[in-house]
Please model this.
Amino acid sequence: MDVPITDTAQIPIGTKPSDDEVDIFGITHQGLVRGRNEDQFLVATLHKRLQVHGTSLPSTADLPLESERLAAVVMVADGVGGGAAGDEASRTAVRAATRFLAHSIQCYYTASSMAEEMFLEGLKQAVASAQEAVLAARAGDPRMSGMATTLTIGIGIWPRAYLVHVGDSRAYLLRGGRLRRLTRDQTMAQGLVEAGVLTPEKAEDSPLSHVLTSAVGSDQFSPMISSFTMRQGDMFLLCTDGLTKHVTDEKIRERLLTFDSSEQVCRTLLDDALEGGGSDNITIIAGRARGPK
Model:
């Protein structure tokens, strides 16, 4: 489904950014309390290219050999299950989803509305492949019993953006100075908020805010898929809850408003989370869809 972003009439979509106008960076940190890092992230681009394997032409210099960017792909995963189990769950999920998307490159040759239905089905299959891989790893090793992971995937095929989300990692969009949370926390606390039992403020401090109602590798697996149209100047952020436990949405907005580079934003927010206590693993991906200069 489309994310309802309605206040964009005056913001142009613009032309597809060139590769040197795409600024994406990711970082992960163990934090100050945990004994190991069970988070994983991926920042990648998918390309198509003409590869000449043989020709009688005297030169191929005038042929379109340059690799065209079809899509940008970002992922964050926060493993649960403790120790090696959580680490293995997040790594397995990211690898499986990445392999599936790479093998489905034909989906990225067009972002037209005619292709979108097929593309969305491919995203469902990608996250399903992650689910199958984690369940297989659990079944194959008794030490991995109970392992699971969150998984949030963002894919940009200009001008469309797609999100696949399981768990309580988050995706944000800053547009026109307004920060929007694009994902819903799949936790017991959020469910109680939506049922009117808890206020959002009380949910933040509730121990149920860390109890997942959906995860990759769990019997409770309910991926959420959404999409929206990107516009010039958009800034996005994906993160695990190691950031949002210590850094408010308002602070995230403040940091994105001073966006100099994606690396600078990630490192500044990481410092904020560590200064706030660093009680969990912290993973952050930031990016910007810049228009031509």
